[in-house]
Amino acid sequence: MQSSDIERIVRDVLAQQLSPAPASHPQRPAIPATGRAAVLTARENLEFREFPLREIRPDEILVRVEACGICGTDIHCYKKDPFGLIPVVLGHEGTGEVVMVGPAVTMDSVGKPVRPGDKIVTSTLETSDACMIAKYNPAKANLCDDLRIYGLLPDEPDNHFNGYFGEWLIIRPGSSFFVVNDMSIDLRVLIEPAAVAAHALERARATGHINFRSRVVVQGCGPIGLMLVAILRTAGVNNIIAIDGSDARLALARQLGADQTINFRNFPSAESLADEVLHVTKGMGAHFAFSVTGVPQAASTIFKLVRRGGGVCEVGFFVENGLSQVNPHEDFCKKEITLVGSWAYNSWEYPNAYHFLQRAERIGLPITKLITHRFPLDRIQEAFATNLRQEGIKIVVENTRRPAARHSDGGIPA
C-alpha cells in the first residue's frame, strides 16, 4: 500500500467521524385513542365514560393524571350542582405527568422549562377581556365572575378532559401551570388547598393583626383549617388556638402547630365557648380569628371570640350555605372589628403555596398526614361516599391504570 493510499484512508475516516450524524425522526410518545373520565351526570351520580383523546394543539399540553384530592367544593357540586355545570368532570386539587407539549409552549408560569416527564400542577385560567376587575386590578383577578379552574369547567364537544377525576387532562392556552418535579405526589395534591390557605393568610396580614405575638383562633379543622394552622406556624405565629368538634382532628391540629385546642361540643352555648377562649387568651380574646367551617352558626360565633380591636377572616363559605345572625353593635361597632373575606386564590399564590409546603416539612410539621384515605379512580364513588360520611380529612383519588396506547405523530417527543 502506497503512502498516498494511507493518507486517503485516514482522511476518509476523519471525515466520517467529524461529519454530523444524519437527523433521525424523533420517537413520538404513544398515547391511547381514548381515555376515561368520571363524569358527574346528575346530582350524586358519577359515571365513567370513554372519550376520544384528540391530538393536542400547538399551544396545549397533554397530562396523564396521577392523583387528585376531593375538595369541599367537589362535594357541593356532587350534592347540589350550585354552579350549573352538569355534565362535568370534577377535580381541581390534581397533579400529573406531562406526556406531550405543543411546540408553542416552552415554559411554565414562572419561567421553568416544561418537557415531557415533568410533574405539574395547574392553577387558574386567564379571565376574559371583558372582566373589568382583572383589567384594572390584576391582583384581584380571583374576584372575576368568569374565574375558571380545571375541574370546574363545563364539558366541551371537542374536549372532555377538563378535570382531574379522569385519566387525562388537556392544559389549554392561557392557563397558569407549574413544574414541581422536586415535590412528592402527596405534597403536589396539597398545593391547591395550600394556595387557599396562603391567600387567606395574605388577606389576614393586610389587617395588621397578624404577627409573632398574635393569639390566633382557627375555627374549623377540616383540610383548609388544618392547612391554616400549619401555615400560621410556618409563618411564625406563636400562639394558635384550634377549635373543632372532632378530637382526632384537634389532635392533628396540635401536630401541625396549634398550641391549644378546644372541642366546641364540650360547651353548651356560644357564650360558654367564648368564655373558654377568653380564659386561654388572658381574658382578652383572640387578636385574630379565621372562620373555616361554612356553617352559619359558627360564622355568628366567631365574633364573640375576638378581642376589641381584633380581626376576622371568613374563609369557609365557597357556596351559599344560608344566613348568619350577628349583632352589629356588639360584634362590629363596639369592638371595632376588622373583617375580611377570602375567595380562592390568584395564580401567583401557587409558588407561595408550594414553598410553604416545603418549609413545613423542613421544620418537621407532618403536613402530609392531612391525607387519610386513598382510592383508585375506579372507586371514586366510594371515595365520595367516604367524604360525605366525614370520615378522614383529605381523601385522594389516584389514577393507577395505564391504558393501552396507540402511536401519535403530534407534539414534542418524550
Key features?
414 residues, alpha/beta, Quinone Oxidoreductase, Chain A, domain 1, Rossmann fold, 2 domains, eight-stranded mixed beta sheet, six-stranded parallel beta sheet, 12 helices, 18 strands, globular, disordered C terminus
**How helix-rich are the residues, as a percent range?**
25-40%
Number of helices: 12
N-to-C span:
50 Å
User: What is the highest CATH level, the class of the largest domain?
Assistant: Alpha Beta
Mind describing the biggest β-sheet?
A: 8 strands, mixed
Q: So, CATH architecture of the largest domain?
A: Alpha-Beta Complex
Portion in beta strands: 15-25%
What can be said about this structure in brief?
28% of the residues lie in helices and 25% in strands.
Describe this structure in words.
There is one protein chain. With 414 residues, the protein is α/β, with parallel strands linked by helices. It has two domains: 30-189 and 370-407, Medium-chain alcohol dehydrogenases, catalytic domain (Quinone Oxidoreductase, Chain A, domain 1, Alpha-Beta Complex), CATH 3.90.180.10; 194-341, Rossmann fold. The chain has helices at 3-18, 72-80, 132-136, 185-189, 191-205, 223-234, 247-255, 270-280, 296-301, 328-333, 349-362, 380-388, and strands at 30-31, 34-42, 45-52, 61-69, 93-101, 119-125, 148-149, 168-171, 175-179, 215-219, 239-244, 260-263, 286-291, 306-314, 338-341, 371-376, 394-398, 406-407. The strands form four sheets. Strands 4, 5, 6, 7, 8, 9, 16 and 17 form an eight-stranded mixed sheet that branches. It has a six-stranded parallel sheet with strand order 12-11-10-13-14-15, with helices on both faces. It has a two-stranded antiparallel ribbon with strand order 1-18. The longest helix has 16 residues, at 3-18. The model is unreliable at 18-27 and 404-414 (pLDDT under 50).
